[in-house]
Amino acid sequence: MFKIIPKSHLSAALILAVTLGNQAFAQATPNYAYFFDYLTPSNVTNTPPGYAVIGEANPTQRQTWTADGRIVGMSTALNYGTGTPNPTLWSAISSNFSSSTPVVNKQQLAQNIINSALQYPGEFPLSSERTPTTSNGYVIWAQDFEKDTSSTDELYAGVTAVLWAGRQLLGTDFKIIPVPASYLFKTLGGYNSSNIVNGVGSTPYLASLGLSAPPPPSSGGEWNFMSLLYKNSLIDGFLGQQYAVNNSDALPGSVSSDTLHFYENIPYAILSAHDNPPQLSGTPPDPKWQSHYDGDMPFQAGVYWGQEIVDSTFSPSTYLAPTDRPLTSLGLVPEPSAVSLLAIGLGALAMIRRRRS
pLDDT digit string (tens) for 186-224? Predict the structure, then answer.
C-alpha cells in the first residue's frame, strides 16, 4: 500500500512520485450519503438527487434506484446467533472455523459464512451490481457493524470473517465500504490481530483464510482494526459512525483523538446523526462542523436517519462542511522514517532515469 508523505518532507522528485501514486485516489464530487433505518421508496424520493442511499433493500428496489442514478449501499440485518444468553456475530459463524488448515473452496466457505451471518442472505448484493447503469447508479456493500457482547478478539474476528466472505463473493472491483460503529472504527477495548489471523491455543479463529496483520507498531500494541481489513483488501474504505453529543473532542464529522492510530492512510468519511441522537438539529453551528473525509469514496459525508420519515427540507450542508483531511494530517498515521524517505526518493529518481533513457 502507498503511504502519503507530507510535502514539506519531500524533494521535487518525491512530490512527483507521490503525485503519480495518488492518481487512483481522485476525489468524488462533493456529496452525501443518507443511512436509513427505514429505507423505503418514499424516503428515497425525499432524498436529494445525487445522494447515496444506504440501508436494507431487496434486489428489485436496488435495480429501480440504480436505474434512476442512485448509488445504493446495501446493509442487511445480521444474525447474532441463537441459543446463547448473549448472542454474537461470532457465535453465528464460528462453526465455519474449526481448523487452521488452509481453506480449499473459498467460494463455498464464503457463501456458508454469508448464509450464517445474514438474517436474509437473499438480499446480499450480486457482483454484477457493481457495474454502473446508464444513469451511473450502482450498488456498494455498506454493511453496518455494531459492537456485541463477545470478547474483543471474537468481535473483530466475526467482522473480519464476514467482510472476507463478501470480498470472495463480490470480487475485487466491488466497492466494500462498511459502516462500523465508533467502538469498532476507533478500535476501543483492544484486540490481538495475531490471534485473529493465526489463531491462539485451541481456537483457530481465521487461520484458515491466510490473512496477515500489519507489522506491529514500534511502540508496541496494535494498529487500528481498519488497518487489518484494508491491508488484506477486504474493504475499500469506511464510513465511520460518530454520534457523540456535547463532546468537544468528538464533534459531528470528526475523527476524535481516542481513535487508535492507523498503519496507513485509508479512504474514509464520517457518518453523523440527524436524530437518535439529534446531532444535526436545532440551530446550525457557526462555523459549520468540518466533516472529515479522504480518498476514493463515492461520498464525502453521511447522515444517519433513525426516524421513520425523512425530512425532505433538511439540508446537511447547513450543518456539515465536508473537509479533506487525510489520516496523516490528523496525526493518526505515523510519519515515515528518514530511511523510508530516502528509499522513496531514490526510487523516484530511478524511475525518472528509466523514462529518460
Answer: 999 989 999 999 999 999 999 999 999 999 999 899 999
| Cα–Cα distance measured from residue 178 to residue 236, given in angstroms and rounded to the nearest whole number | 9
Res. 80 pLDDT band, cuts 50 70 90: confident
Cα 7 to Cα 15: distance, rounded to the nearest angstrom: 7
pTM listed for this prediction:
0.86
Q: How far is it, in rounded angstroms, from Cα 71 to Cα 186? A: 26
Cα–Cα nearest to 227, from 249, 259, 195: 259
In whole angstroms, give the CA distance from residue 271 to residue 276.
13
Confidence of residue 82 (pLDDT cuts 50, 70, 90): low
Continuous segment of H or E residues that includes residue 100: none
Please write the tens of the pLDDT for every residue from 282-293.
899 999 999 999
Is 38 in contact with 56 (CB distance < 8 Å)? no
Q: Are strands 71-74 and 138-141 parallel, antiparallel or unpaired?
A: parallel
Measured from the Cβ of residue 195, the count of other Cβ atoms closer than 10 Å reads 20
Distance (Å, whole) CA 318 – CA 286: 10
Residues above pLDDT 90, as percent of the chain: 78
Q: What SS3 class is residue 324? A: strand
User: Can you tell me the distance from the alpha carbon of 39 to that of 45, in angstroms, rounded to the nearest whole number?
Assistant: 10
Q: Locate 45 and state its grid cell.
A: 424520493
Buried b (16+ CB within 10 A) or exposed e, 264-303: bbbbbbbbbbbeeeebbeeeeeeebbbbbbbbebbbbbbb
Which helix (H) or strand (E) covers residue 299, if one does?
A: none
> How far is Cα 301 from Cα 269, in angstroms, rounded to an integer?
5
Crossing angle of the two packed helices 12-21 and 338-356, in degrees rounded to 10: 80
CA distance 163 to 240: 16
What span, in angstroms and rounded, lies between the C-alpha atoms of 143 and 124? 10
Q: In this structure, are residues 125 and 141 in contact, taking their beta carbons and an 8 Å threshold?
A: yes
Name, in order, each residue with C-beta under 8 angstroms of 248's C-beta and a sequence gap of 6 or more: none
Q: Which residue has the cell 444506504?
A: 54
- Dihedral, CA of residue 199, residue 218, residue 4 and residue 354, to nearest 10: -90
